Amino acid sequence: MTSPRRCFIFGFFFLWLASLSFASAYNARPKLIVVIVIDQFRGDYLERYRDLFGEGGFRLFLDHGANFSECNYNYANTRTAPGHATLFSGAYSDGHGIMANEWWDPQKRRVVTSIQDDQAKLVGVNSSAPGSSPRNLLADTLGDELKLATQGKSRVFAIALKDRAAVLSAGFSADGAYWIDQETGLWITSTYYRSELPKWALEFNDSKRAEKYLNQQWKDSNGNALRTTTPPPGKEAGFGELVGSTPFANDYEFDFARELISSEKLGDGPATDLLVIGLSGNDILGHEVGPDSPQMEAMTLATDRQLAAFFDFLKHQIGLANVWLALSADHGIAPLPVVASRLRVPAANLSAAQLRRQINQRLSEQLSPGHAAEYVKTLDYPIAWLDSEAFAAVKIGEEDGERDAGEAMLRAGFRGYYTRAQLARGDVPNTETGLKYLHSYSPQGGWYVMGVPAPFTVGISEGTDHTSPYSYDTHVPLAFYGLPFQPGTYRTHAEPVDLAVTLASLLGINPPTHAIGRVLAEGLAVPQQDRSHAMGNSR
Ligand SMILES: [Zn+2]
Question: If pLDDT is split at 50, 70 and 90, which confidence band does 311 have?
Fold first, then answer.
């Protein structure tokens, strides 16, 4: 039997041991993690422009970080909302439920966005538009797991020009998600997060920082004017339209990010904080000019300088030894079809509206001769959203209706198709492509058919687009900077789902609920204790 005195001493000893191990594990963690997600930043840009980058921007990752150069999305939903949901849930659409930016809602009988929430209202702007929330997410995120592990002590924020990029990166439990009102340029949020903007954000908006970026000329490094943010004479134009496709949009985002870090004292709390910055300007420009244009090069080099300045701010504010950084993108982009065609690569600008008419015409001839019906409600190339009521009127159920639509899509030039019913059953060929479409499935949004597009075809008459299962859309950067990473270029298989899983593992917390990624162990530095242990074993 142990005496109370011995018990007391042992108790103290174990308490001391426990506090020691907690302290040492805790000290290995960073004060702040910043994840930069560049909207439409293709995986090959880092190599293409490497020699043109300055110090401390992208080269912080390339020269001093762990750079996974062969990172590809393993699904077909290469759009903004699914991309951000994938990066932070560590799962694909079949896990997190976000398969598109918007979809046809059969109950509401209208198109809804991935983050639209009729229960919520926008905060920070006078608008009758519905608010936003992550309620359509079917999985939690890295930020949520950080919150759960620290009982809310970690602070989690996401900002972006686009609402969906901010909301889906932030997850359910975030302290804030902020995005830019397209009309006014004001930073806004939703009542899901808070009923009014914090004082610092109100002051930021009141300082009219958005106006600083109007009536500006964007020039390349040779001084050539590329674009202006002056409204065309006699025409009203919103902030998004004027500034969105220039580097000024990203400048404005970094202004806000700096203000957020200082005012919320990120990196100064009792637990690791997380900030996601979604840079959206690159995507808006890229759709217009394509990935191979001089403007895109100038935009990428501007992003490089902006990152260098921001990382310098982090260095002075928090110290880079206390920060982990990660870089990725939500999707890539197809070359402009005209550019690919010039090189004799088969490519085409297709009109989604025309394709939809063609498919509906064929379905009407087959299912309701003499009566033209809108069986395909919207065609967000290459996904067709079907009107179940139109099929019900001719007594056709989901299985047959989706197959009929798929066959009509084949005849309109699609390479193949996967129906919602088929994907829900997991009924796909046991191939790499089959797996990509299995990962693309979501139960949300009523009946649909995912068309397999011909490579280098886009569903818009001008410019270019993404949303294919092909490398130009799936290949994105994935790079890390910080003490736990072993600098180098890693050409091993990597996927965006690995980001949240790797960071969660390093933090010693659970990965997000539906995560399927792997820990990118080859890019990790061997910690001191493990190294001495390994050496001891080898003796
Ligand atoms: Zn886009």
Answer: very high
Instruction: For domain 348-458, give its CATH number from 3.30.1360.150, 3.30.420.10, 3.40.50.720, 3.50.30.30.
Output: 3.30.1360.150
* CA 347–ligand 1 middle distance (angstroms): 18
Fold of 32-333+469-529: Alkaline Phosphatase, subunit A (3.40.720)
CA quadruple 393, 395, 399, 404: dihedral positive or negative?
negative
How many CA within 13 A on the CB side of residue 274? 30
Please provide residue 383's backbone torsions phi and psi, each rounded to the nearest 5 degrees.
Answer: -105, 130
CA distance 47 to 62: 9
Cα(285) to ligand 1 centroid in Å equals 9
The first and second tokens of residue 86, run together, are 């994938």
**How far away, in angstroms, is 373 Cα from ligand 1 center?**
31
Per-residue pLDDT of 349-400, as tens digits, reads 999 999 999 999 999 999 999 999 999 999 999 999 999 999 999 999 999 9
Question: Is residue 136 over pLDDT 70?
Answer: yes
Cα 334 to averaged position of ligand 1 atoms, centre (Å)? 10
Quote the ligand 1 centre to 482 CA distance (angstroms): 30
What does the radius of gyration of the chain's CA atoms come to, in whole angstroms? 25
pLDDT tens digits for 275-302?
Answer: 999 999 999 999 999 999 999 999 999 9
Cis peptide before 291 (omega within 30 of 0): no
Report CA(231)–ligand 1 centroid distance (Å): 23
How far apart are the CA of 206 and the centre of ligand 1, in A? Answer: 30
Q: How far is the CA of 79 from the centre of ligand 1 (A)?
A: 6
